[in-house]
């Protein structure tokens, strides 16, 4: 199922498909290891409009809601 | 010989730097910006060299101007060798920067730091294998314990002398063809002028590096259409923008290297970190813990401060009293001496009681790894005033004293966030302004009015935040923040950090405070207060409707806020303010002092953190806000 990062639930594992938005966002995410094709796991969904906490390549990264909405992910159907 | 330390944020770079440079390091400002780097002469094993610690960078190209400045500095500095510090526990991501650094063709040594943390995570790294793959020496270290550090510098000195550079990693064939095509077409002197090898320049241009593209537009505009064409070629064959193609290529190279040289054992036991984070970052518990930690921090700093400040200032009062008995109080010499003592004691009264415990607490929270977790929790709230989560820390501390709070603004990465937070922090009522609120409003007008002022203050801060973020629109749409693993802070790192930050206050802010005090003493000596009262009277009594005598107290308030109320007693000739001021006047006076020009020590700190322009802006902005609010209150009291 194709969705965006902020819609995932706790412990969901998904693959990054596409990062929408400008080069600035792509570079920032790339620096922290988020590229298309990478596997991510949601550690904590954003609460109160706050950032989503994900695990990627063994690192935990908090991603603000606005940015999470721009990350398109592929969630394997259970 | 010059050696530069380069690494991604949080890799232990500063720990390494401090472990060899210690207290000798000099903090320098990079010309034209507020970015800072530290350098220090170091001698190890009879070799002496200059060690430069650059701010952490994730990559050689970045949307962040500060990272670009760090890169430019690296290129212009032309170090004899680069030590690339890597966090061994996140080897894969760290390798991406290394792949770029190799393209610089500067002798390179890799410092594989935090190998203890990697082991804890179950990552085994075959160092010799990696060394062969990269073609550069790799030294495993644990910088916080000094382990491997001498070997690292020996290797750096050796490689600098030999001038040997590491391997170049080729990308997939079709991309590589395009890169070499561009590298060949760019004039040799263009690349040389920019201090970059042609291949790296070509890579960066294809990656749409803004800063370099601007430079090329100046030096060799003829090549621009060609760059455009080649970018198009890459993106059409891969179906993605060229920057994504190149960064993905580098990413997969790094992944391959990582898989090649490391072995991950399944987790031996459940990580303690996950257990702790379950509560610390919990939607309810997290806020409770954050509140308790901030409250505890606040109480620690201010109870400790009070404990020391009163007896400390008592000594200075004794000294002044003693001098006034034994010297001619009317003499110019005594006046100047008195001013000097006031300024000196004012500085001591901030440094020892407040700054040291504050910096201690902040370094501790920072080094343990709590700050980024606090930022995670506060992000959504701080977003409403145009900032992101981390900014909560300086705000809370501002209630004690604005000086350390402004210093604390440094924990924010972007200069825009630092600017907005620093300006907003000056509105936070510090302990001194609290005495005014309590002494005037709470005492004479009742505590509900005082509470109202605190709420008004928060509203004004939020509104000012909105205004400032409109003024400097955000470049990035949100926060991306790495949540590091918890670490045991090392005593040496904490002490070093406190000393670095403290020294800044001592060298820059304190002298200004002393000079300011002397000037104010001289004003008194030459009996200029009346003249000043008269001069400011159109503003204070004409505009704000306050007694004319209050003008001078506002001037003294710039030196130290608590002086406003002390001087008010002197200026009005009574401590029963209700007999000479109406309720409205007291409210207007307090509102004005709550928001107007911050004290001298704060101004001096502002100047170092956000520069002259920022300081002057704050002066104008705070005065304007204070005037408008005071006027509004005058109007309200006029109506009712």
Give an account of the 3D structure.
The complex is a heterodimer of chains A (78) and B (640). Chain A is 17% helix and 38% strand. Chain A is α+β, with helices and mostly antiparallel strands. A six-stranded antiparallel beta sheet of chain A has the order 1-6-2-3-4-5. In chain A, strand 4 and strand 5 form a beta hairpin. The mean pLDDT of chain A is 89. Chain B is of the alpha/beta class and 640 residues long. In chain B, the strands form two sheets. A seven-stranded mixed beta sheet of chain B has the order 2-3-4-1-5-6-8, with helices on both faces. In chain B, 68% of the residues lie in helices and 8% in strands. Strand 5 of chain A pairs antiparallel with strand 10 of chain B, so a sheet runs across the interface.
Concise overview:
The complex is a heterodimer of chains A (78) and B (640). Chain A is 17% helix and 38% strand.
